[in-house]
Amino acid sequence: MDIVKLTLTKVPELYLEAENITPDHFAGKTAQQIGELHVHLGNTTAKISDYFTVEGKGGATAADTKIIISGPTDKVKYIGMKMTAGEIEVQGNTDMYTAAWMAGGKIHVKGNVDSFCAIGMTGGEFIVDGNAKNYLAASYRGDWRGMQGGKVIVKGNAGSDTATFMNGGTIDIGGNVDVHLGTHAEGGKIIVRGNAKGRVGGQMVKGDIFVLGQVERMMPTYILKGEEEVELDGKKQMFHVWIGDMGERHGKRKGEIIYGKIYVPSGKAEAAAPAARAERKKKLTDKQLEQVKEAFKGQEPTVQQVRTYIYDTFDIDMKPMQVSRLIDGLKR
Amino acid sequence: MSEYIIKNGKVYDPKTGLKGDVADVCIKDGKIADKVSNKAKVIDAKGKTVMAGAVEVHAHVAGPKVNEGRNYRPEDKLFTYKPTGKNTRMSGGFSIPTTFKTGYEYARMGYTTVMEAAMPPLYARHVHEEIKDTPIIDEGAFPVFGNNWFVFEYLKNNEMDNVCAYISWLLKTTKGYAIKIVNPGGSEAWGWGENCTTVNDPVPYFDITPAEIVKGLLTANEKMGLPHSIHIHSNNLGNPGNYTTTLDTLKIAEGVKPNNKFGREQVLHHTHVQFHSYKGDSWANFESGAKEIADYFNKNKNMTMDLGCVTLDETTTMTADGPFEHHLTSLNHLKWANVDVELETSSGIVPYVYDPNIKVCAIQWAIGLELGLLAKDPMRTFITTDHPNAGPFTRYPRIMKWLMSDKSRQAMLKGFKNSDKVIAATNLASIDRELTLYEIAQMTRAGPAKSLGLYDTFGGLAPGMDADVVVYDLNEDKIKDAEEIEKAFSAADYVFKSGTLVVENGEVINNGNKRTLWVDAKVPMNEQVERDVQMKFLKFYSMNLNNYEVSNHYVPNPYVIEVDSN
Ligand SMILES: [Zn+2]
């Protein structure tokens, strides 16, 4: 396997759209030729070599090509878009649409990724050591074809709207996920090893969601079907199984109606809702209040800005009304 | 104004009877001329095809449902955008392109006149705003009449003068071109949770049948002598076994003679006939009824049709047939938009993937082409896709290829996953007719222009006609591979619109001088209709009458066809 090393030499002023960074485009090319491929910045077009140093060369085919990317790549979008084979390894963070419509091969991001990563993915493996933002493995805006195959592993947390319109493949999240998990899903398997914030499986037609921590609040359109022994991670475990979404259409197989299923480990399900509610009531400490004050000093932040800041910084989900009062309090 | 002479091309023009004869075409002052001075710019068309600009008889290219399609299908735009060019604005979209792309793509294919097929009167302003923003091509729009409360009530009371006065008023108020009928009565019945699937199903409350609506509007159309005939999408679209409903609808026109001063010979145009030519009684035994429809059509010369060919693409269905779109979303489970247009019509939108591996889709594909090949008179048979319902209009060159090449059709038939079943359910495998370029010119130029009552101006190359002229890089005597046909028709070498060179080597070089066609049918003043309009606006419409009219500034460059309908 031939290796191409890309090193970002400067932080781009605008976001860099780099859909050409894939083994498919690099295969059969020299470092010089790779450097000539285009990238977009706003309404301008530049070359890969304007921003990256390129070492090595592409392999004979995409499958024989590995790309190692280093440098401050936080503002680089579309890495690995539509790739079909080969490997990409990113040392740092990447921006939106990493691994979008990926069909094969492997992408490993050692830092965090932004939103819309692995959307419409049909095959291959996408591994993130850090966190992923919203719409991970979902469908493109308006589309009904979310993740359809392959595997996504995020070791940290994932944001909201993960796996919207998923209909195949596997997603494994090491940490927590925000609201709207597996909305409209029609297949596939999702494992969340931490907590899910709620609105899990809304309008889900088919598919399996495992939440090994707690589901903050189960949708009212899900019914607790009972306990079931299911194999996960190679061992058999007892789960409470919820079926739904009862407000959605469902197909039949051998006379039996197929539902979407949410699995929560036995013993945790009962505790789930009250625990989460207790967390919601949490107030900020005086020290935290000071910190909020400092963060928005001299600004007029919106409720949503402050609420997001509190959630991201202290992991406390305050109601908008609470935040609004808090802002009033800080002004006085 | 500049003069041009297009020299030595193989000219296909039903108007002058040229069937590929080598001839020169002269352009002077925006019109076709007998001769030009020696200052005329010379275009060498040796070994190339020369035709008049094509005329689109039925497409959904402007207005609220098209735009709602754009709004709710961002995925249709994905990876399709072209940045601003030297003469073009940014444009994109596939099945529901932006207005700019609509103009550019029609022009690149050599289409110079286009009819928007369904204008809801209440949103006519929106339709005209989009028409105004669609460059190059001349356009008109057909307001829908088939589910209109005024029409129902006047027809029910046998008040033909009032029907005519109302039609005249609405054409003028909406700057409309012709009488469009969509699922007569059925879209109104949908407001009551019902539908009309035969011509005899009464509309709830109004107690009028589709047959009465069609007959009434047809009579009014001929009484008024409008340039186009009634333009109908009949009941029961898209359902297995619906060909009998289609025949029942066509029979309403039997024996009626056209009355107009525009050279139009038909009294009824049936649109997207492919969707109306289905046999069988379920999707399991679904099969082609193209032969039955074509046989009837061949015998009855007072009607025209367009095909509505399925192109096997992912597209967006949109129609004023509200109940049909609801039916469709329950079949494919994709997103659905729906609206009730007050006293006038309804509308729905659902994305659709015509997958060649699905038997029904492949049969639909075959039916569209069968109709084109079994119909004996190309002057009465027009190529459409009911854009974007059966596929985008940008696929016309591909349909021309299929109609012209038996080999390309057979290759498609053999390639289907359910090849044997598709062949068994259709007649296409046994039809070896290959259309000629002359017949294509009839189906896309002369025929549609004549049916619209515009054959003195558009669709031909006789001196005095508008200089809409196209040169394609195609030589009928030397076609080796059918792909050449699709390639040539996709991007013309030269396109002139009203004497202005707008496309050169497949690229848009000029945005032309776009006009909006509408019909001003003059009838005697009718106080009852005036009073009824005011009353309906007071009592029922959510809009004030003053905000309803498409005032002149919406139509900055009008092309008005005046009719004395007294
Ligand atoms: Zn239509």
UniProtKB/TrEMBL annotation, chain B:
Q: Where is the Amidohydrolase domain?
A: 41-502
Gene3D superfamilies reported for this sequence: Metal-dependent hydrolases, Urease, subunit C, domain 1
Instruction: Indicate the segments annotated as coiled coil, or none if absent.
Output: none
Output the Gene Ontology terms for molecular function. Answer: hydrolase activity, acting on carbon-nitrogen (but not peptide) bonds; oxidoreductase activity
Task: Kindly give the InterPro entries that the UniProt entry links to this protein.
Answer: Amidohydro_3, Formylmethanofuran_DH_asu, Metal-dep_hydrolase_composite, Metal_Hydrolase, Metallo-dep_Hydrolases_sf
Key words, A-Z: Oxidoreductase
EC code: 1.2.99.5
Name the Pfam families on file: Amidohydro_3
Matching SUPFAM superfamilies: Composite domain of metallo-dependent hydrolases, Metallo-dependent hydrolases
Tree of life domain: Archaea
NCBIfam families in UniProt? one_C_dehyd_A
Query: Protein name, please?
Result: Formylmethanofuran dehydrogenase, subunit A
- Organism per entry: Methanospirillum hungatei JF-1 (strain ATCC 27890 / DSM 864 / NBRC 100397 / JF-1)
